[in-house]
Every structure is written in structure tokens, then in C-alpha cells.
């Protein structure tokens, strides 16, 4: 007995204890352990079958009250797979056959129990085989059901086709894929619904496949849907063979990949447009002008975007759309060229897509010319050249052109693709503006924007090659009182005057001369000259006199303008562009100082120019390193001689030269623009002086500072004053003095500035009064607090009755306007007495005190 085997569970149906004992003894001969249980009634049998779960049932055939046949029925009812063997004393042949037919596995006579072991083994083996068959059958059945469900419920088309191209089987998915019921397909050749081109390809390939006993894989075939549309099916098939091993049918599966292929095509198309966009960015950098940009755009769109053709039309001044650039299929290009210029603004029904795109400022897409209701001539034109679809996109806002793209395939332009194409037109528009701006910037770099003459950059590039080629006479000219024109008549007036002067100078230039406009009102011209400086000066003088001889017509006015000039010889005097310009500027400044029409180069002028450059350098250093000083000149009440304040004056102590005269360095500050920084420095330090006086207990003393014309013209002058004075809320002692002539240059601007200063707590004095050209009307409008009588009048006060009368009138006028009067430059006692008699309010001058450093002023007057 094999004890490792699981115990065999045997249920005995027996009512005789003796027979039970015999059966149990016979079971000992089995080669495996045995577990037994015995029942003698139907209820007990039913309970044991459910609980004991026997592997085998041994049953007596004849039992009083419960027959063996009834037991067989119960076992087959509850556990039909359990083997059932009759063990009986006597059983007839007919009964035995009947028992076997009813499902008994065997029968064994009690007097021959030696057969029990082989009968049990055979019954168990037979039951095992039967169970295996049933399991296999059930598995096959489940598999068939599963396969059938898969076949019938898959979205793919599963089919079988014989060699006559007739369908022998089709699942119902074909109805969803092609729109036809299965029954309709059985009535036709399987290939009848395939597009003719693809059907011919399949019919040509089938004989070879059959001969080679091969199938096919992943063929993309086009089928005509019941609604007329085209579906793309991916087909895979394998042959099935008959008994002789020959191909009898093909079984295959077709998957609808229409959407997938469209998506792949869309992705490829989008990728191509992305490639165009990327390449266009590089094209912008390579393009030398707008035309080259448009040509490269069309080329990239065809080569990278895989369009049949591309073209760009631009609006002409005459209101037409003209072909500017094209690339692609020659038939399409010839057709577009044959159309000529397309008029814009016409009715939409007669317009082509490009015209509509421009007129309506929107994209016009034709997905399929063959399926669209459109004017027959246009449809025929497109068919003749092979165009199936087109899109026209406006370029720019508002449009200045149209991009036309043509394809030889019907093409739906969805939102994503149109968005990319709109990006493409936006890039074209941006690139065109970029190139135009670059061209403009290049023009501005080499041409003066006002006159169009060569700029300083162009002059520097051109002058040295001229000098290397031949000796040159080079002159610089500027317009006398040009600043006055700009300030009094406005910048547009000044610009127009410069254009008129430039045009006249150009007409007066010797043949081959160079005329440039490097800055503001300065012109440089150079001409071949092998003679001496005097001869060159004569030629330049002739040109400048002729230029200013007749008035210039500016904004309908006759305007006269005089030109000053400076001349040098190159390479004799200078041979570099910078050196020439620097020297000409210095000589021109000398010409203006001497009021000379034309002045030539001399070493003396060079020396003065060098000193001026050094002076400018040292002034910049002084500004950067707090190298200036404030000197203070006291002011006194005319009647009481009480100290009322002082005027702050800028002084400069040079590290090597010592104290430098204001007459020497102030003009340089003005000319270089450094006066703006210097003026701000004076105001900051003057305010500190005012604060110190208050700390010393000297309240009510006012400190006046001068503002130069250049400072007053600065747009941020008031802003700078606000930042300086706003923290004091108007409670400070700083006064501002502005010259009369400066105020009259722009009376409206002057009124605005003076009022702003007064709003900040400053008292405003009109300096050097009487030297300008102000009228009573203008004077009454100025928001001022005081007039300062110029020292030139004070000096003549005791010597000239006319001057005395004038000063008397000035003081009376000022008082009538509510203005205080301050006399400056009082140097003699008699002058002071007369001013007191004339009721002048305040006086300053050497008679009362010279300008001194702050410490000395405080020591003298505040202690």
C-alpha cells in the first residue's frame, strides 16, 4: 500500500453487517489508504454524499426498503461523476445490463470479491477520464463562446474569403465600418467596395500569394463607405488549407485606421509647419531685404511644409493684390502669374480666396475644390493644374499681403493647423517689420534723419579714404542763431530750415565733394584741394555766402540764416576722422567768438582748443569729486542796511592753477552741458547753507542761486527741484534767479516753471532786468517776486541822466506790479544813496561786501 497517496473515500450502501465486513476486508487489497462510511437509507445516502464527498460508491443490489437501483438514481442525481459499483449476491444478466445502462460502472458478485479491486481501479480510471473529457469539453465550449463573443463584439472586421473573392464569413462590425449589412456583402465580390486603384493592387497580388501559400500583413486599403466617404482599413490575413494542403480560403481581420492615419498625417503636417516656423527664424537672420525674406518663406513652405505650391501677394499703391513671391509646382505658378494683379474691395461672390482673405481680413480655406460649390472657371482652373485644396491667410493687421498655400490632396484645415499657419503669417509679418526696422536703423546710422545727408558714422567711414586718395579741404559750417529758431518757432520749423539749408549746400558743392550732417545744425563738407589754406577758405566762404544770400522758404515764411565756417587741410593739419572733426569744432567756436564768417586752422587755435579740452576734463573731475566751492555775496536792505541774505556764486579752485575765473569756466560748463550737474550741485549746497544759518539762529535770511538757460530747458528741471525741496514743505530760504532774456525765449514755458518754483516755496527774481526785450504785458504775467537791476545800469546811475530816469521807471514799474527791486553791482556810496532815494528795496555789490567763502561770510556777518 502506498501511504503517500491520498486516502480513497468509499461510501458503502449496505444493510448487512456480514456483507459489510466482507467488503471492508476486500478493500484492504487496494494499493492506497481507504476511508469508508456506510449508510443503509436514502436520507443517510443523500447526507453522506454532501458531507463525505466519496470518490466511489459500493452498493448492495437487493436491500429491503431501499433498493440498489434507487441508490444509483440518488447518486446520479447528486454527484453524477462519482463511480457506482454494485456488489451483490445474485443478479441476473438482464438486471446487470440494465444497471450498466442506468450508469453503474460495474457489478461484482459477493462470492467473487477478488474482482472488486480491478473493478474499482477501472471505475476510478474511467471516471477520471470522463471528468477530463468533460473538463476539456467545457473548456472548448467556453473558448468557443469567448471567441464567438470576441468575433461578434470586436470593432474590427473579421472575415473569410474564398479564392473566388466571395465572403464566406463576416462578423457584424463591417456594418459599423462600411455601413453595409453583412447580408449585402455576401451578394457581391468582397472587393467590390474597395477603391478601384486598391482593388487592382489586391487582385494583382492574390495569385502570387495563393501560389506561395502566404498571407499579407498591415496593408492599408481604401474602401468606399455606404455614405460615399473613404475609409482606410489596415488588413492582415492568413491562408487556410484543404485536406490536400492547398489554400482554400483566406481568413483576415481589417481594422478601421482612418482616424489614426488622419491623425498621423495631421501630426506630420503640423511637424512640417513647425519645421517651416523654425527655419523661418533662421531665414530672418540670413535675409538681406524683404524680397529675399518672402522668397525664402515660399521656398521653405514648399520644401519643409510639403505644400504643392506657395505664393505671397502684396497690396500695391493702386489697390491691387500683386504677386511678390512664389515657389512650387510650375503649373500652379503659371496659373497665378496669368491672373495678374487682383483688384481688391470687389464683391465676395466674384473674388478668389486670396482677394477674400485680404478684403475680409480672415483665413479662407477650400478643403476640396472637387466637392465645393464654387464658380466653375475657378474649379476648372484648379483641376487643370492638379490643385485639390487651398488656404489663403492675410498677413499683418491690417493686412498688407496674403499667403496662399496649395495642395494636390483634399485637406481639412482644422483649428490647430490654422493656428500654426496663423503663427507662420505672424512670423512673416514680424520678420518683415524686423527687416524694415533693420534697414531703417542702418539708414539712420549712415544718414541724418532730418536731412538725409550722410551722418557722422558715414562721414568717418568716407573721409579717410578720400584723404588717402587726394589732399582735401574740409570745412564745418553751422547756422547762426539756430537755437533761437528752434526755441522760438519750434523743432519742426528748425528741422525744415535745416532741410532747406542742406538742399542749398548740396547744390553748391564742387563736383565729387562729400557733404555730411553729423549733428544738430553742423555740416561738414570736403572737396579735393591741392592749394593752400587761404584758397580753401576762399572757396568755403563763397559757398557759405551763396548759401545764405537768399532767404529760405520755411512754412510759408522767408527766413534768412547766416552760416559760420571753419576750414583745415588734410592730411596737412589732421589725418583722422576724429581729429578733423575735433579741430573743426574748435576753429568754428573761435570763428563764432570773433564773429568771423570763415576761419582757418592755426596752431594758436589748436592750442586754445587743447586747453579747452583739458579744462573740460578738469571740470568733469571737479563735479565728480566735489571740487567746487560756494562763495556768498551779502545783500542788504537799502533803507536800514540790515542783512537780508546773500547770493550764492559758483567758484572753482583748480588743484594746480588755483582759483579759476568764472568768466573762463562758466561758458565751458554751458557749452558742454555740465552746467546742469553744476547747477544741481549749487542748489544742494545752498540749501545746506540755509539750514546751517537757521541752526546758528539767523532766521529770515534768504539765499539766492542762479539758474542757467540750459537748466531751465531740461524736462526734468522741476522734478529735480521737487525732489530737493519737497521734504521741507515750502519752509526753506532758497530763492531762484533767472535772467530776463531767458524768460522771453518761451514765455508760456517760463510762466509754468516760475509758478512751479513758487509753489515749492522759492522766491523768484528776474535777473539782469533791463537788458532783455520784455514788455509790460509779459512782465505782468510772470509769477515773480523781485526784479534785479543789472549792474551796467547801476554803474552809470550817477553819470547818466537817461540811466537814472530808466532805473527810476524800472523801480516804479516793479513796485506797481508788487515786485521787490534789488540792485546789483553797487560799488560806490553815491550809487547806494541814489538807489535809496529811488526807493530800491535791496542792494548788493563790492561797496557792501565781496563774494567770500561760507565760513568767512558767517564769521563776518552772522556773529
TrEMBL record:
> Locate the PAS domain: which residues?
143-213
Domain PAC: from-to ranges: 217-269
Which InterPro entries does the record associate with it?
A: Biofilm_reg_signaling, CheY-like_superfamily, EAL_dom, EAL_sf, GAF, GAF-like_dom_sf, GGDEF_dom, Nucleotide_cyclase
Q: Which GO terms describe its molecular function?
A: kinase activity
Which BP terms in the Gene Ontology apply to this protein?
phosphorelay signal transduction system
Q: Which UniProt keywords apply?
A: Kinase, Phosphoprotein, Transferase
Q: Which Pfam families match?
A: EAL (PF00563), GAF_2 (PF13185), GGDEF (PF00990), PAS_3 (PF08447), Response_reg (PF00072)
Work out whether the entry's keyword set contains Transferase: yes
UniProt keyword Ligase present = no
Domain EAL: from-to ranges? 612-863
Matching Gene3D superfamilies, A to Z?
A: 3.30.450.40, 3.30.70.270, 3.40.50.2300, EAL domain, PAS domain
On this chain, the residues bearing 4-aspartylphosphate are: 60
Domain Response regulatory, residue spans: 9-125
**Domain spans labelled GGDEF:** 470-604
- List, alphabetically, the NCBIfam families matched: sensory_box (TIGR00229)
Matches recorded under PANTHER family: BIOFILM ARCHITECTURE MAINTENANCE PROTEIN MBAA, DIGUANYLATE CYCLASE DGCP
Q: Report the protein name in the record.
A: Diguanylate cyclase
